[in-house]
Specification:
The complex is a heterodimer.
Chain A lengths: L14 E8 L5 H12 L16 H6 L7 E7 L5 E7 L8 H9 L3 E7 L6 H12 L3 E7 L8 H10 L9 E2 L8 H11 L12 E10 L3 E10 L1 E2 L4 E4 L4 E4 L2 E5 L3 E4 L2 E2 L3 E5 L13 E4 L18 E7 L5 H13 L5 E7 L3 E8 L2 H15 L3 E3 L6 E5 L4 E4 L11 E16 L3 H10 L3 E6 L5 E9 H4 L3 H8 L5 E11 L2 E8 L2 E2 L5 E4 H18 L7 E7 L2 E8 L12 H19 L1 E4 L2 E4 H6 L7
Parallel strand pairs in A: 1-3, 1-4, 4-5, 5-6
Antiparallel strand pairs in A: 2-3, 7-8, 7-16, 8-15, 9-14, 10-11, 10-16, 12-13, 12-15, 17-19, 17-20, 18-19, 21-22, 21-23, 23-25, 23-26, 24-25, 27-28, 27-29, 27-30, 30-31, 32-33
Chain B lengths: L8 E7 L20 H12 L9 E8 L7 H14 L2 E11 L6 H9 L4 E7 L3 H6 L6 H13 L5 E7 L6 H12 L5 E6 L7 H7 L8 H17 L3 E4 L2 E3 L7 H7 L4 E4 L4 E4 L2 E5 L3 H9 L5 E6 L2 H12 L6 E2 H4 L5 H10 L3 E4 L2 E4 L1 H5 L1 H4 L6
Parallel strand pairs in B: 1-2, 1-9, 2-3, 3-4, 4-5, 5-6
Antiparallel strand pairs in B: 6-8, 7-8, 10-11, 11-12, 13-15, 14-15
Helix pairs in contact in B: 1-2, 1-10, 6-8
Classes of the chains: A alpha+beta, B alpha/beta.
Chain lengths: 609, 375
């Protein structure tokens, strides 16, 4: 093992840039930790499991949200020293663009497959991405120590479903430390070293950016050509903004400053960039005085596809929420938000997310790291309305639903969903997809007993409890991946929810006409469970325009008084009231009805039917 | 906020003994009558801690448990000790809770001699089947006899405790009990809707499915009926469960609990209140006696009310009475004005003399009324 401070001479031939790609839970982070432990002397205090997943939330969920990168010094069997740059990628479909930029920075990947689960939807999606980037692919079969491990089955899948040579697959158990040496050696042998012109104009690909409160934005990049060093003035090619480089370096367990970053290397750059939002993932860095002619290919502006409003539980906390969002955004450029207001919930923000997981991560991190208590509205997508005057308006907030008399046609975004399941679940999954307005089903039989099902579906139908339902009906065996495939015309309506005749704006949503009743019934039922009885009868209704399509009633309190109240009863009763009063603080007034915060959450809760 | 600092204080004595425990009761009481002497010795010690509690008391309430179980000399010795330790106004209301089974013309005479001027009789019902359900040891004939004797002994202030809303009871049955009660012209009636307290034998029987409590709708009907019936009979429905023949017959003692007047409670489980501090004694007779024997006050816990807590109590306790709540107290809350409008609009309360007074309909949901004024 080489000391932490030792780095080999970084000539291109001795560099390997690689990622680990895998379906969720196939052990990516554990393998990354093992590779780190095998190559770097990790101080005892840093020895936590899943070192790359630094956020508490990531550890808990076992997924990588924000990718980290690390350079591993490795002495190979050929006696030479290598720098193995492990570029970690976010493990979820919401972040597929980030994944693609990380892969664009590599020459090869470890394609990890769980020995007990086999090839899953994201394994395939990741494989396609790797193939698109012409990467060397090393199949790694992980978790071979599990009693349910079925190596011949997985090898068969690797051959048939992935089209890779199963004999090249490395058998490993990251958890038990088995096969780690073979993985390291294969990285050196099977992944080609980077190519590039040291003397050419600088081109470096930005694949990540994080925020450091003392230094500003730390840009993670892969240098393709040329060199960059402190003092250089760089240009971010998409925006053309110049920045003076303050520091460059490599990622060890901490940042390791270096004199320069040169072609083939992966490292970081600090250049007085205030927020991560000033940096676009996928953008190309070049030098102002010797700019590249062309940026590196593949840059796209990522656009949010899922939208929801967030409100502070207590209206007094609006300022604190605004601050929290601003701080949060320092580290997550993909979140977009603007002010929003609701009669029921007060001042809040309309946010755009890359997907549903991204939405969950943002709300959980706001709660955990910034101590915000939030109410989130039902997530939706961005709809397109063609008005009678020919104008097309994009609406991502039900409150901005256009005047229905002026709507000529409506359209919504569609995805291509790809689902891999054991054969026995085909019927149930088909039913789910059809319920969710899936069309053009396509079947593949990747290997014996397994079915690859693809559907074209409205995005709006998968953002609310689709994945949870899929997992539940397939007992965890179903895997899912999707690609956006554009807008299609669709018959949309605005569903309003009325409580005691008052419209609850925060519960309004845009839905397909055929799905409106189901939704209305579901929302009314959930609200009935959550809204406490009051002194009067409360009607809960779902309506399209003036037409009521669902209704529930909460009966009034008829009697609520305790008979005796002497001595000790007084304190006891006051304490009860204090508790109820604390509960009331979390209530929102709609007309004369108090709606608990839990009602807004309940509407979103997964259906466990 | 009305703080009754100048009012005379109330004194409560808890007699924690019963011949047997009623299945609905969750008060501190036991059946080991052999311990009466220990208790009496202990409570006299306890008095020693509170000689300066208040300049004077104008109510003394001997409750329980079953105070009428005390022998003549025990009761006399208790009253004597109280008079030694505390100053009472000449017109002090002295109430004794009695079980109709226990009284005799002799005991009633004795009570009179001790200065007891108000009796609270645990009649509970005039229907023997109901009395059996409630596990009472007396039957209705004992109540008839006790009430007649009490009047004969010259008690001009009689209060009856009644329980209604029993499982399966219909309003008609209840009306008959009430009518019988009214035949004795009681000055005061406490009509408690049956509450099934957690941990009592009744709660267990309910959990076992032996009976089903009345529906909320039926409970409402019983409550409204009781209020209407007794008000038509000339009683003032002055608190959720309490009715008086005229203002002067309201229980002086109980009202102190509801308006933050100082009161001292002696005996196991008794609560006391003064200057925003509330404290309570050990509930178990054993702990109570042991602490006193060790020379300490038998206090098990205390709380100091914050101004907000005082306001909250004034609010909810006030809204349980027909005195209502001072509007100034209400309007301190942001929700005050809205709450007021909503409540008046819903017919749950009325404004009179700068106070918000709950209506009969308001009293039925009194527990929720205070919540409407909270931010």
């Amino acid at each position: 093992m080489l000391p932490l401070t030792y780095w080999p001479w970084l000539i291109m031939h001795n560099i390997r840039n690689f990622s680990i790609i895998a379906h969720i839970d196939h052990g990516k982070s554990t393998l990354a930790d093992r590779l780190i432990q095998a190559t770097i002397m990790v101080p005892e205090r840093l020895l936590k499991s899943q070192m790359l997943d630094t956020m508490e939330l990531e550890r808990e969920r076992g997924i990588t949200i924000k990718s980290n990168t690390i350079t591993l010094p490795y002495r190979a069997r050929d006696g030479k020293e290598y720098a193995l740059n492990l570029i970690d990628t976010p493990g979820h479909v919401d972040f597929s663009y980030e994944v693609s930029r990380a892969l664009a920075s590599c020459e090869g990947v470890l394609l990890l497959v769980d020995a007990s689960q086999g090839v899953e939807a994201q394994t395939l999606a990741n494989l396609y991405l790797a193939l698109e980037h012409n990467l060397a692919i090393i199949p790694v079969i992980n978790k071979i120590d599990l009693p349910q491990a079925d190596i011949p089955m997985v090898k068969e899948q690797i051959k048939r479903e992935l089209g890779l040579d199963p004999d090249a697959a490395i058998l490993c158990s990251a958890k038990e430390g088995i096969g780690i040496a073979a993985v390291l050696e294969a990285i050196v042998v099977s992944i080609p070293p980077p190519k590039g012109a040291l003397s050419g104009p600088l081109t470096a690909l930005i694949f990540d950016a994080t925020y450091d409160p003392y230094r500003g934005t730390v840009v993670s990049c892969r240098v393709f050509d040329g060199k960059v060093k402190p003092g250089d003035t760089i240009l971010l090619m998409s925006s053309g903004t110049p920045h003076k480089v303050e520091e460059v370096g490599l990622f060890g367990l901490t940042r390791e400053p270096r004199r320069e970053l040169a072609a083939g290397q992966v490292g970081y750059l600090i250049a007085g960039i205030k927020t991560v939002s000033d940096v676009r993932i996928g953008d190309t860095i070049t030098l102002e005085n010797n700019p590249a002619k062309e940026p590196l290919p593949g840059f796209t502006e990522v656009k949010p596809v899922v939208f929801a409003s967030i409100y502070p539980v207590s209206a007094d906390d609006y300022g604190a929420l605004a601050d929290a969002l601003e701080k949060y955004k320092l580290n997550d450029a993909s979140l977009v938000y603007q002010k929003d207001a609701s009669a029921a919930l007060g001042q809040g923000f309309r946010c755009g997310f890359l997907g549903l997981l991204h939405l969950e991560i943002v709300s959980e991190r706001l709660a955990r790291e910034f101590g915000q208590s939030l109410i989130m509205t039902v997530p939706g997508v961005r709809y397109e309305f063609t008005l009678s005057d020919g104008h097309v308006v994009a609406v991502d907030n039900p409150q901005h639903y256009p005047d229905p008399t002026r709507i000529k046609s409506t359209a919504e975004p569609y995805i291509k969903a790809s689902i891999i399941i054991p054969e026995r679940y085909v019927g149930a999954v088909m039913k789910l997809c059809l319920e969710r307005r899936g069309v053009n089903p396509h079947f593949g039989n990747p290997s014996l007993g397994r079915v690859e099902l693809s559907f074209e579906m409205p995005l709006a139908e998968v953002i609310i409890d689709f994945y949870d339902r899929l997992k539940s009906i397939t007992q965890g065996y179903g895997s899912f991946d999707y690609d956006l495939i554009g807008y299609r015309s669709s018959d949309l309506v605005k569903l309003d929810i009325l409580v005691n005749g008052e419209r609850v704006d925060a519960l309004g949503m845009i839905v397909h006409k055929d799905r409106a009743r189901d939704w209305a019934v579901r929302v009314c039922e959930r609200l009935k469970e959550e809204i406490p009885r009051q002194q009067f009868k409360i009607a809960i209704q779902g309506a399209i325009g003036g037409k009521i399509i669902a209704r529930e009633t909460i009966s009034a309190f008829r009697k609520d008084v305790t008979a005796k109240c002497y001595g000790g009863d007084i304190t006891r009763k006051r304490k009860l009231l204090e508790k109820q009063k604390a509960g009331k603080k979390r209530m929102k007034m709609v007309g004369a009805v108090e709606i608990p915060q839990s009602a807004f959450v309940a509407v979103l809760r997964t259906d466990k039917e | 906020m009305t703080i009754h600092v100048d009012d005379a204080a109330g004194l409560y004595v808890h007699v924690p003994f019963c011949l047997r425990k009623c299945p609905y009761c969750d008060f501190a009481s036991g059946t080991e009558l052999a311990l009466v002497a220990d208790w009496l010795r202990a409570i006299k010690r306890e008095m020693g801690f509170y000689g300066d509690f208040a300049p004077r008391f104008d109510s003394l309430y001997l409750g329980g448990g079953t105070p009428s179980l005390l022998a003549a000399d025990e009761l006399a010795s208790l009253v004597e000790a109280l008079e030694d330790h505390f100053a009472f106004s000449p017109d002090t209301e002295i109430t004794l809770e009695v079980n109709p089974d226990d009284v005799t013309p002799q005991s009633l005479q004795h009570y009179r001699e001790l200065g007891i001027n108000r009796l609270s009789l645990g009649v509970q019902s005039f229907d023997d089947r109901e009395l059996a359900f409630l596990g009472r040891r007396h039957d209705s004939s004992r109540s008839h006899r006790a009430l007649a004797w009490a009047r004969e002994a010259g008690f001009a202030n009689l209060g009856l405790d009644l329980i209604y809303g029993l499982p399966g009871q219909i309003v008609e049955q209840w009306r008959r009990s009430l009518e019988t009660a009214l035949g004795f012209g009681p000055e005061h009636l406490s009509c408690y809707q049956l509450t099934i307290e957690a941990g009592t034998p009744l709660a267990r029987r309910q959990a076992e499915g032996q009976f089903q409590r009345l529906s909320e709708e039926a409970e409402r009907e019983f409550f409204l009926f009781t209020s209407r019936f007794l008000e038509e009979a000339g009683y003032l429905h002055y608190e959720i469960s309490n009715f008086a023949r005229g203002n002067e017959n309201r229980s002086r003692h109980n009202r102190k609990y509801w308006n933050h007047t100082p009161y001292l409670g002696l005996g196991p489980g008794a609560h006391s209140f003064r200057d925003g501090r509330r404290w309570w004694n050990h509930r178990s007779l054993k702990d109570y006696c042991q602490t006193l024997n060790a020379g300490e006050a038998p206090v098990a816990g205390e709380e100091i009310l914050t101004p907000e807590q005082t306001r909250l109590e004034a609010l909810y306790l006030g809204l349980r009475t027909r005195e209502g709540v001072d509007l100034n107290v209400l309007l301190k809350a942001q929700r005050g004005k809205i709450g007021l409008q909503e409540m008046v609009k819903a017919g749950l309360a009325k404004v009179r003399d700068n106070r918000l007074i709950p209506t009969r309909k308001g009293l039925v949901v009194a527990d929720r009324l205070a919540l409407g004024f909270m931010d």
